[in-house]
Amino acid sequence: xxxxxxxxxxxxxxxxxxxxxxxxxxxxxxxxxxxxxxxxxxxxxxxxxxxxxxxxxxxxxxxxxxxxxxxxxxxxxxxxxxxxxxxxxxxxxxxxxxxxxxxxxxxxxxxxxxxxxxxxxxxxxxxxxxxxxxxxxxxxxxxxxxxxxxxxxxxxxxxxxxxxxxxxxxxxxxxxxxxxxxxxxxxxxxxxxxxxxxxxxxxxxxxxxxxxxxxxxxxxxxxxxxxxxxxxxxxxxxxxxxxxxxxxxxxxxxxxxxxxxxxxxxxxxxxxxxxxxxxxxxxxxxxxxxxxxxxxxxxxxxxxxxxxxxxxxxxxxxxxxxxxxxxxxxxxxxxxxxxxxxxxxxxxxxxxxxxxxxxxxxxxxxxxxxxxxxx
Length: 375
Prior knowledge:
By secondary structure, the chain is of the alpha/beta class. It has helices at 18-40, 74-85, 103-114, 151-159, 170-173, 179-187, 193-196, 207-213, 232-241, 267-287, 295-302, 308-315, 325-335, 351-367, and strands spanning 5-11, 45-50, 62-65, 89-94, 119-122, 130-134, 162-165, 223-228, 245-250, 290-294, 341-344. The strands form two sheets. A seven-stranded mixed β-sheet has the order 3-2-1-4-6-5-7, sandwiched between helices. Helix 1 crosses helix 3, helix 10 (267-287) packs parallel to helix 13 and helix 12 runs parallel beside helix 13. The longest helix has 23 residues, at 18-40. The N and C termini lie far apart (43 Å). The model has no long low-confidence stretch (mean pLDDT 94).
């Protein structure tokens, strides 16, 4: 029993593909970083819930393996852990969610929970990476859920919780979810060393287009295109923190949590249909000096059923390792574009871009001699 706050980290469904393995290893390393930060920030216990029987434990957290032979229900799994932990407050997040959070960030979550009452804390109200609530039993008043990113809204609407949203920053926006996020972590000097050690070798990552795009963020004569599920907070951050012009196409926000039967429609997807794969990259080059694309929106628009491994290999700009014909052709077109094109998911267009901008300015200031050298 723990009369304080507990953190539940969820790690499962990692897949068996090579790119999926890259992400899974980094997410597990991030779990250890988050566990230590949470303990330093006042959380009394941390547990990693996983379907991977090979994981025995780690520094700062215990492991609770999914029961063998039982159909998985996220709600029942979380409620079962809440009962085991006996904590008065609980936070729930994926093992790789918000890997840049510090002890001070977790302390802010703990402080908000300690105020008492029927409260919840999240980094994103409509699509959370971290949700915390007090009392922990408030989760039992929420109906069935199979995605933890719906919890803040459901806790407010069904459990009557007053929800606090953490201030928007790179730390509260960056999610380790796809190989594109691995590239960002490889380039950012803010990456914790334990996560950096778990990243794949540099030759396995498409560093070149990222390195080519980063100086554009500091160039008032440059223009970039950002297309996909772009939040207004990200747009505002780019307006404040970059020198370049930014062409935004924001579409299909909330796609992952849309009602059943929703059909994705994309303006960029329509452009792709009109001009074809071969001309698509040329059209991007005519619009901007570099582009950042949420390819999940394009895939949904096209009705693609590409596997997660294929999507991840697409993020790595490796068409030769993509088995889905449509995504293979798209990946080849993006990899051959005359301007740098970054491909990824929602996190790349939010915390990923924010982290790249921070690193770009740091390197820009070093070139100008107004920032200390690395190391």
